Amino acid sequence: AGGGHRGVIAFWKGNSVAVMRVFPYLGVQLASNDYYKKAAALAGDGRFGFRVSGEVQRFVAGGGAGMTAVMTTYPLDMARARMALLLEQGALRVP
After folding, report:
1. Longest alpha-carbon distance in the chain
2. Which of 84, 70, 77 is nearest to 26 (CA)?
3. CA–CA distance, 20 with 69 (Å, rounded to integer)
């Protein structure tokens, strides 16, 4: 179990790419969440003939922000998955 690697280095091996992906993901998610909150508030304030509660506005904004963050950081996630696969197949170094 563990492939012969032990300690803190084994824990962090291959995790650096995943950690680097988190920063742009969270940045995009937080920025787009603010944008979608403002857009949902404008659309649901009654000027188009309907009102939307604050909970629904926040739900739609969070869903849109999550989708936007995943779409923009998908290439980083694909690179992380490919690097993990190469290491799993026995590559000593990842190109």
Report:
1. 65
2. 70
3. 14
